[in-house]
Design a protein that fits this description.
heterodimer; A: mainly beta; 5-stranded antiparallel sheet; 11 strands; about 55% strand; B: mainly beta; 7-stranded mixed sheet; 1 helix
Chain lengths: ~110, ~120
């Protein structure tokens, strides 16, 4: 099984600051998905990146897929308390299996 | 509509009980999944159904029995569970690889919080 290492595991910052979450592997994935999960709820899909070097923006969130398709990052600009949650990256292994990183628990303090 | 529904929201069962979790989607997806998520851990894949046939079983104990009666429904039958099986059980669906290739997005339901006493 391919492994995804996500860092940092915990991040607590003040409202208005910027942050970056990293998702790294030694293996190549055909695509990588980012999810956000609230306590007691299912993960909600934020974005899928497929092409090496791809950059996707979702309002204040910027997602990047590494050129070699082994790593990805999530950058949040001017973080807001509503961004608080668990962020999960997940790489597609084969045709049907998602491999999840351990998650980054993000807290934005007002 | 990208909604996957799951019932019940919460379930408490004894170790000798038999219960079932239900999942439904109307997005026309032909792949459906069961995941188990323990507290402060990421989801772990249990089963995958593709075109109503079981395609992946991640060595899950036989006390968990999946069923896919049709392309919209997925059940997980539970019997003789252990307290360590207490977790959030998540259902997901996606288009199949044939239709979407690497742009292969899984959509999750809200989960069933299971407590085994």
């Amino acid at each position: 099984t391919q492994l995804l290492e996500q860092s940092p595991q915990f991040l607590s910052i003040q409202e208005g600051e910027n942050l970056t979450v990293y998702c790294n592997s030694s293996s190549v994935f055909s695509s990588l998905q980012w999810y956000r999960q609230e306590p007691g709820e299912g993960p909600v899909l934020l974005v899928t990146v497929v092409t090496g070097g791809e950059v996707k923006k979702l309002k204040r969130l910027t997602f990047q897929f590494g050129d070699a398709r082994k790593d990805s990052s999530l950058h949040i600009t001017a973080a807001q308390p509503g961004d608080t949650g668990l962020y999960l990256c997940a790489g597609l292994q084969g045709a049907q299996k998602l491999v999840f990183g351990q998650g980054t628990r993000l807290t934005i303090n007002p | 509509d990208t909604e996957v529904t799951q019932t019940p929201k919460h379930l408490v069962m004894g170790m000798t009980n038999k219960k079932s979790l239900k999942c439904e989607q109307h997005m026309g997806h032909r792949a459906m999944y069961w995941y188990k998520q323990k507290a402060k851990k990421p989801p772990e894949l249990m089963f995958v159904y593709s075109y109503e046939k079981l395609s992946i079983n991640e060595s899950v104990p036989s006390r968990f029995s999946p069923e896919c009666p049709n392309s919209s429904l997925l059940n997980l039958h539970l019997h003789a569970l252990q307290p360590e099986d207490s977790a959030l059980y998540l259902c997901a669906s996606s288009p199949t690889w044939i239709r979407r290739g690497p742009l292969y997005e899984q959509y999750f339901g809200p989960g069933t919080r299971l407590t085994v006493t």
